[in-house]
Specification:
Chain lengths: 433, 316
C-alpha cells in the first residue's frame, strides 16, 4: 500500500511540475473567463446605435416605433428617393420604407449600417402589431385603448407533482444547462486524462523502465498508481481552473464595470429576438437552482466523474500496455472512444426526453452512464432505484474493466515487437500469474 | 548453504514452453552464471525469481523460505533491456526506485551520496536522464540495482553498453559485493567474463538445464586431455618415446621448433612421458589445451540442437 502511494506521488508530482501543466492551468481560466465576458462586454461597449428614418406612405405607423438604447426611430415626411439620396450625408443609418401593408414584401429597409437580426425582428413585430390593431379597429370596431389593454404576457411554468402530491417548479433551461455542463466536464476529463494514462504506460514500456519497477511492485499497483495519480492531476487542474476562473471573472467584471444592468440589457435583446425571458438572470438562476436537487447533482457528479474516469482509464491503460508506440493505438482506441462520443452526441436527444427508454438504458450502461445520467439527473425524473442500479453497474463495470486491464497490462508491458491482435488480447486474459 | 533453490519449475506461455522441469541451487556469497542461447528461458527464470511472473508448477526457495513478496526488498534486478524515466532527474529517480524497494528516503539519500561519490558522478544529481549518454545512464541503473544492498543480485548482461574502463569498474564492484556477502546471478553471453568471475554456472537450452557445476569442474569435465608439446630435436626420437597410451593428433615444424599435439588416454601420464622424452629432445613447453567456456557453450548447445539457433522467442 505504501508503494502505491509512492507511485501516485510520482505520477502526480512529475505532471504537476511540468511547464505545460502550469501554462494550461493559467491559460484555461483566461480562455473560459474570456468566453463568458467577451459577449457581454461587446454588448455593452459597442452600443450599436441605429438611427432609422421611417418613410411611411400608409400613414399607419407615425410614432408607432418605440425607441430603445440601440434603436432610434424618426418619422420622415419626404419621398423615399430623397431619403435615399440623403442617406450618406445625413445622420440616419437606415431607412425603413413602408409602402403598403397588404403584402409583407412591400416593407423595405435600406441601410448603410447592417441591422442585426433582433432589430429586424423588432421592426417586424411592431409592424405586425400595428397592422393587427388597425385591422381589429376596422373590422371589429374596437378602440385603440381596448386593444392596448389586451397585452398578454405569458410564461409557462412547469411544475412536477410527485406521488406524495408535493409540487416542484422547474426551469428547463437551467436543468439542461447544468446537465450539459456536467456532461461536458466528464467527457473532457475522461478524454484528456485517460489519454495521459495511456501515454504514461507507453512511455514506461518504451523506455523499458517498467521491468525494473515491476520487480519492486506488482503490475497492478503500478497501473492503479498511475490511474489514481493522474486522476489527482486532473482534479487539481479542475479545482485551480474553477478558482481562477471565478477570480478572473469577478476582477474583470469590476474593472470593466460590466454590471447587472448591462446583463439585463443583453437579456432585453434576447427577448426582442424571441428568446426566452431572462431579464433577471440572477433571480431566475437562483429560483432555478432552488428547484434543483443540488446535493444529489453534486454527489452524483463526483461519482460519475470519478467512476467514468476510472472505467475508461483502466481500459486505456490496457491499450497502452498492449502496444509499442502511440501510433499503434488506433485500432484499440476505436471501441473505447465510440461509446464516449456516442453518449455525448446522444445527450442532445436525452435532453428532449430525459425519461425516455433511450435515456433509461444508456444511463444504466456503464460505458455511457457517466455522461447520460448526468444529463438526466438535473431534471429530477431519475428514480432512486435507477440511480443506485446505474451506480452499481458503473462500479461493476469499473471492477470488470480493471480486472481485464490488469490481465492485459501484466502480459502486455513485457511484450515487445509484436503486433497485437484482439485474439491475442483475449488469450492474455486467461494467462496464469 | 544455498541462498536460492529452484525446484522442478515449469512455465509455459500459450504454445510456447519456456521452462521445463528446471532445478537450480545458488550458493550463498557466490557468483552464479546463468547461461544459454537467446530464448532458452533465462529471462523467464529471472522473472520468476523476481516474482514478476509465477511458475506453472514447481517451487522457488529463498534462504529456505518459499519465495514470497517480502523477499522483493532483498533482491536487486538489473534487466537486460533497461531504461529510466527520460524526463526525470537522476537524483529524484534514484530515490524513487530505492523507495519502491522499501528504503526510507533519508537512508536512500545517504547511500546514494556514497555511490555517487564512489562513481564520481556527484554532479549528475539534477540532470535529466535524457541529457546523459547511454553508458552514464547504465551507471545510474547499476547503482539503483545495488543501492538497497540486496542479498541476491540478478544482473542480466550487466556489461552491455559499457566501455572497457567502465566494464572493469563494474566487474570490480561485482566482486566486491560478493566479498561483502551478496550472492549474484549473472546472465550473459559473454563467456570470457563468465570464466573470469563466476564460481558456478548452469547452462539452459530450450527450456531445460543441460549443464551445471563449478566453472573449474565443468572445464575439467570438458577437457579432452590434449597437450601441446614444443621441442627442438629429432621427431623420430620423440615418436619412439611415445607408447600406445598417446595419440599424435597434429604436428608441425616452424624453423627448428616442432609443435606436436597429442591426446592422452586414461592410463597415460604426461609426467611419465616427459621423463622419457626429456633425455631425447629439448622440451620448450608443455601445455594442456583446455576448452574455453565459449567452446563448451557451443558444443553443448549444438549437441542438443544441431540445427541453427532458433529465432528469438517472443518472451525475451
Amino acid at each position: 500500500m505504501n508503494k502505491i502511494k509512492l507511485i501516485i506521488a510520482r505520477e502526480y508530482l512529475t505532471r504537476v511540475k511540468k511547464t505545460s501543466f502550469i501554462v494550461m492551468t493559467l491559460l484555461g481560466p483566461l480562455l473560459m473567463a474570456g468566453l463568458m465576458i467577451v459577449p457581454i462586454w461587446l454588448a455593452t461597449k459597442d452600443k450599436d446605435l441605429q438611427r432609422i428614418e421611417v418613410i411611411d406612405t400608409t400613414g399607419l405607423f407615425i410614432k408607432m416605433f418605440d425607441n430603445t438604447s440601440e434603436l432610434q426611430f424618426a418619422d420622415g415626411f419626404r419621398s423615399i428617393e430623397k431619403a435615399k439620396a440623403d442617406l450618406y450625408e445625413g445622420d440616419f443609418t437606415a431607412i425603413l420604407h413602408i409602402e403598403s401593408v397588404k403584402k409583407g414584401s412591400d416593407v423595405t429597409m435600406f441601410y448603410k449600417k447592417q441591422p442585426g437580426i433582433s432589430t429586424i425582428a423588432k421592426i417586424e413585430r411592431t409592424i405586425e402589431n400595428v397592422i393587427r390593431s388597425a385591422e381589429m379597429q376596422r373590422q371589429f370596431k374596437v378602440t385603440k385603448e381596448q386593444i392596448s389593454d389586451i397585452q398578454p404576457n405569458i410564461t409557462v411554468k412547469p411544475i412536477s407533482i410527485d406521488a406524495e402530491g408535493d409540487e416542484e417548479s422547474k426551469n428547463v433551461a437551467i436543468m439542461t444547462g447544468i446537465g450539459f455542463f456536467a456532461a461536458i466536464l466528464i467527457y473532457f476529463f475522461i478524454f484528456m486524462y485517460g489519454i495521459q494514462i495511456m501515454r504514461g504506460v507507453i512511455e514506461e514500456k518504451t523506455s523499458r523502465i517498467v521491468e525494473i519497477i515491476i520487480s519492486s511492485v506488482k503490475p497492478f499497483e503500478l497501473m492503479m498508481g498511475k490511474i489514481l495519480g493522474i486522476a489527482l492531476v486532473g482534479l487539481t487542474q479542475f479545482l485551480l481552473w474553477s478558482i481562477l476562473t471565478g477570480a478572473i471573472y469577478s476582477v474583470i467584471m469590476s474593472v470593466f464595470g460590466v454590471d447587472a444592468s448591462a446583463m439585463s440589457q443583453s437579456a432585453d435583446m434576447m427577448k426582442e429576438a424571441g428568446m426566452p425571458d431572462i431579464s433577471n438572470p440572477l433571480q431566475i438562476l437562483s429560483e432555478g437552482l432552488e428547484s434543483l436537487p443540488i446535493f444529489q447533482i453534486f454527489i452524483s457528479f463526483l461519482f460519475y466523474f470519478i467512476g467514468g474516469y476510472l472505467l475508461y482509464g483502466a481500459l486505456l491503460a490496457a491499450i497502452g500496455s498492449a502496444v509499442d508506440s502511440e501510433a499503434d493505438t488506433q485500432q484499440f482506441m476505436m471501441p473505447i472512444t465510440i461509446p464516449l462520443i456516442f453518449s455525448f452526441v446522444v445527450a442532445q436527444t436525452v435532453v428532449e426526453n430525459p425519461d425516455g427508454p433511450m435515456a433509461f438504458w444508456l444511463s444504466l450502461c456503464p460505458l455511457t452512464s457517466p455522461i447520460i445520467m448526468m444529463v438526466r439527473i438535473p431534471f429530477g425524473g431519475v428514480a432512486a432505484w435507477e440511480l443506485i442500479l446505474s451506480m452499481i453497474l458503473l462500479i461493476l463495470g469499473f471492477l470488470g474493466a480493471t480486472w481485464m486491464a490488469a490481465k492485459i497490462y501484466r502480459t502486455g508491458i513485457l511484450m515487445y515487437g509484436k503486433k497485437v491482435t484482439y485474439k491475442e488480447l483475449w488469450k492474455w486474459l486467461f494467462y496464469k500469474g | 548453504m544455498d541462498l536460492l533453490q529452484v525446484k522442478r519449475v515449469y512455465k509455459s506461455y500459450a504454445e510456447h514452453k519456456a521452462l521445463h522441469n528446471l532445478s537450480l541451487h545458488v550458493k550463498e556469497q557466490s557468483i552464479f552464471g546463468l547461461l544459454g542461447p537467446n530464448g532458452a528461458g533465462k529471462t523467464t527464470l529471472i522473472r520468476i525469481i523476481n516474482q514478476i511472473t509465477g511458475p506453472d508448477k514447481g517451487e522457488v526457495f529463498f534462504q529456505k523460505e518459499k519465495l514470497a513478496p517480502k523477499h522483493i526488498a532483498q533482491i536487486g534486478y538489473l534487466p537486460e533491456e533497461r531504461g529510466l524515466y527520460k524526463k526525470m532527474k537522476v537524483g529524484e529517480q534514484a530515490l524513487y526506485l530505492a523507495q519502491l524497494k522499501g528504503m526510507s528516503k533519508s537512508e536512500a539519500k545517504k547511500k546514494l551520496k556514497y555511490w555517487f561519490e564512489k562513481f564520481e558522478i556527484d554532479g549528475w544529481w539534477d540532470k535529466k536522464i535524457e541529457e546523459l549518454s547511454k553508458g552514464m545512464a547504465q551507471k545510474i541503473q547499476f547503482i539503483t540495482t545495488v543501492l538497497h544492498e540486496p542479498k541476491l543480485l540478478i544482473l542480466d548482461e550487466p556489461f552491455s553498453g559499457f566501455d572497457p574502463i567502465n566494464t572493469n569498474l563494474i566487474k570490480k564492484e561485482i566482486l566486491e559485493l560478493r566479498e561483502k556477502g551478496s550472492t549474484i546471478i549473472f546472465s550473459t553471453h559473454n563467456m570470457e567474463s563468465v570464466e573470469e568471475i563466476c564460481d558456478d554456472i548452469a547452462l539452459i537450452n530450450k527450456s531445460k538445464k543441460i549443464l551445471e557445476g563449478k566453472v573449474s569442474e565443468v572445464k575439467e569435465a570438458f577437457k579432452s586431455n590434449i597437450f601441446e608439446i614444443v621441442f627442438v630435436g629429432n621427431m623420430m626420437a620423440f615418436s619412439n618415446a611415445l607408447w600406445t597410451a598417446f595419440e599424435i593428433l597434429d604436428k608441425k615444424q616452424i624453423e627448428n621448433k616442432i609443435y606436436v599435439k597429442i591426446r592422452a588416454t586414461k592410463s597415460s601420464d604426461v609426467n611419465e612421458l616427459l621423463k622419457i622424452i626429456i633425455s631425447q629432445v629439448q622440451v620448450l613447453s608443455v601445455n594442456e589445451i583446455t576448452p574455453s567456456m565459449n567452446d563448451i557453450f557451443i558444443q553443448k548447445v549444438q549437441e542438443v540442437m544441431p540445427e541453427t539457433l532458433e529465432e528469438e522467442a517472443d518472451f525475451e
